[in-house]
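WARN no homologs supplied; continuing
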Amino acid sequence: MKKLTRVKLINWHRFTNVLIDLENSVLISGENGAGKSTLLDAIQFVVTCSTNYFNKAAHENGKRKLTGYIRCKTGRENRPYERTGEISAHVALEFYEEKRQRYFIVGAVVDSASEGQEKTVRYLMDGERLEDGLFFQGKVPKSIAQFRTGNGKKIKTWCTTDKDAKQMIKNRFGRLEDKFFKLIPKAMAFRPIDDIKDFVYSYVLDEKEVNIDILRENVRTYQDLQHTLDKIKLRMGRLEKIEAFHRQVADGMHKDQMYEYFLDRVEVDILTEEIRQLESAIVHDTYRLERWNKEIAEAQKEKERDRPSGTISMRNLPVTRILLPETSRRRNCCCWKRGSGSCPVRGSNCSTVSTRRRPRSTGLCRCRIRTTASGTTAYNWETWRSRCGSMTLRILCKRSSPTRIR
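OK structure emitted
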């Protein structure tokens, strides 16, 4: 908080050189014309940086001017002002800043060469207190040039225009708003407040002129914006539905892809299992085939080793032709032509073979040789395989596939 502690007035109306001390709350009292409004006008002259609100404390329509305060206007006909010639006046306010625990001075210097010809500058001094040496050169108040020259090192801010002075006040007193410069004169006016509404409008809210045309245009703009907002909300609702459908479709497609993947994966697993089973079966069958081939080879070797000496080797027999009867489709035995008409396996020992080259009409020879033919066909012996006890003979036809004879 910044507190006003002292006020210095030099050539301000009837105050030639006065230093006023202020502490906390101060009551100013006196008869009419004692200078109560003059003191308040000096304070607001420095704080508001304006000369438009003089004597508002005494009368709402007060018409005092800066010239009247500098030259001390009395209203007499023969002598309207008590001060004449070139005059320099000073109004300085000393403040104490509690947060920084230091003093600073805000003030104004006015030079008046003649009536209505006033020049005003305002200044700020940090860390200084009010004393006569700042404002007097001897016993004469310093002019603007003398004040700046004598206190150049102590002056922090020097303002020659009201705009710059207001900016200085706003910055030094805590970045005040523009309405502060209008509320100070209203607060100094001695007028009772009977209506709280009037107080809010006068002291709290800013004064603004109402333009009906601008207001109507704002209403039309508001309605257009409301209509546009309704359309946007409708479109947003439709877009939200479309987005919901899109999410459903995307989820469905994702699930379909997952199901297809699972089905393909199952099919791959099934085919892999079938391939594994087939490979296992191939390995097993290969093992069995090798084992059977080994058994067959061992059996053949054993048969070759155990073959009787009287057995006829069919591979050494000369190839002859066999002529089957033309009217016979199935014969029990064959008529062999081999020099003597004997059985090619057992020779003349076969009990069913006669020398007449015809077998009996009943029974088979013990070799149990059979054949099937259609018509008179000449057969060649290609391969003979015989085995004692259960002999096998293979006969190949010239025109047809081999016929197995047991």
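Confidence is low (pLDDT under 50) at residues 310-343, 349-406.
OK
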